[in-house]
Design a protein that fits this description.
alpha/beta; 4-stranded parallel sheet; 16 helices; 12 strands; 49% helix; binds 1,3-dihydroxyacetonephosphate; binds iron/sulfur cluster
Length: 362
């Protein structure tokens, strides 16, 4: 029988190949000089205005894209807030700079808006590793369990779920379901699943997939880095391996990590998540130092080096082309969208009730 280590290595190699194959099929970005970039930024701004369009960007996208979203009345946010903002904003057209599940979620929640993405090729290793063809029978086999899926999944997988959650609300939802005595089937990220299981003590059956970016962070390297920066606090996204999470001072979604970076009195932070997040951390806490957690060291494969290859596909050139030609429209099958809307709405209603409850206590 294969031991855990070699099974893990085999999966890592398969994931590496998956990313390489995928990236080989998409056009390489050209490098633009400063004038060309400024020209594109200005043309994008004009088009956004003319088309009553809003740019909704994730914290992992290129800092230039994040800045553009902020300068034009759009938003830079985590996946939960992106979904909420896209639904509630007054626009005819949404340009979602992130990965495909974010565009699909926007389209499901805002059927009256046209949703475009700079590229429809930008997927996510979690989405790829949880195809509906194998996920649906797995759910059928365990029909006694409440199906909770992470937002990083296809519309078809969401449509099969009872609940959708993002990392900023996953713990609260599972606590809520556990209190009702429900047993959980969780997919797809096993690290996040295990983290929630440990925190809540809920009965959780985990699907076996991982994020190729967060799985790269190494506990040994982190330990060595901590020796170099003994006063630093460690911030980690829960898609990281448990050995990394156990060393973290704060574990949370992208927005929760940014909040911790601002609120904690410490001056130095080692951050285990995609380095695109540094743009916002540095903007909100300019007097603090942020260091990326190590992805190198023993056993390093460095397939991503703390930078999501799919988020990186959101270039200025692609965004301009998309806005100009209104191509790369996100389409979700109507029946699937209707089904997926139910668990998505459940998540948004739950998060709203939670906010009201928190405010009520303040
Ligand atoms: P957040 O929901 O924390 O923004 O995370 C999305 C994601 O893809 C993390 O890798
Ligand atoms: Fe998916 Fe990981 Fe990229 Fe997030 S960072 S979009 S989980 S591959």
């Amino acid at each position: 029988m294969m031991n855990d280590k070699s099974a893990n290595e085999e999966r890592l190699m398969a994931d590496t190949q998956l990313v390489r194959d995928y990236l080989a099929t998409v056009p390489h970005q050209t490098s633009l000089d400063a004038d060309q970039r400024e020209g594109l930024r200005s043309k994008i701004k004009t088009l956004l205005q003319e088309k009553r369009a809003v740019l909704v960007a994730h914290y992992y996208t290129d800092p230039e894209i994040q800045a553009l979203a902020e300068e034009t009345g759009g938003i830079v946010a985590d996946s939960l807030e992106m979904a909420r903002f896209g639904r509630d904003c007054d626009a005819d057209l949404l340009v979602v700079a992130g990965v495909r599940f974010m565009g699909e979620t926007a389209s499901i929640l805002s059927p009256e808006k046209k949703v475009l993405m700079p590229t429809l090729e930008a997927t996510c290793s979690l989405d790829i590793a949880c195809p509906i063809e194998t996920f649906a029978p797995f759910c059928d086999e365990h029909s006694d369990r409440t199906v909770v899926v992470y937002a990083n999944t296809s519309a078809a997988v969401k449509a099969r779920a009872d609940w959708v959650v993002t990392s900023s609300i996953a713990l609260d939802v599972i606590e809520h379901l556990k209190a009702k005595g429900e047993k959980i089937l969780w997919a797809p990220d096993r690290h996040l699943g295990r983290y929630i299981e440990e925190k809540t003590g809920a009965d959780m059956l985990l699907w076996d997939a991982a994020c190729i970016v967060h799985e790269e962070f190494k506990a040994k390297g982190l330990f060595d880095m901590k020796a170099l920066y003994p006063d630093a606090k460690i911030l980690a996204h829960p898609e990281s391996p448990s050995s990394v999470l156990s060393m973290a001072d704060v574990v949370g979604s992208t927005s929760q990590l940014i909040k911790a970076a601002c609120d904690l009195p410490d001056k130095t932070f080692i951050v285990a998540t995609d380095q695109g997040i540094f743009y916002k951390m540095q903007q909100l806490a300019p007097d603090k130092q942020f260091i990326i957690a190590p992805t190198a060291g023993n056993d390093a494969t460095c397939r991503s080096c703390a930078s999501c290859p799919w988020m990186g596909m959101n270039s200025l050139e692609a965004m301009y082309d998309t806005l100009l030609n209104e191509n790369n429209e996100v389409h979700v099958n109507e029946e699937l969208a209707e089904q997926a809307m139910k668990p998505l709405r459940r998540m948004l209603d739950f998060s709203q009730q939670k906010q009201i409850a928190v405010k009520g206590k303040a």
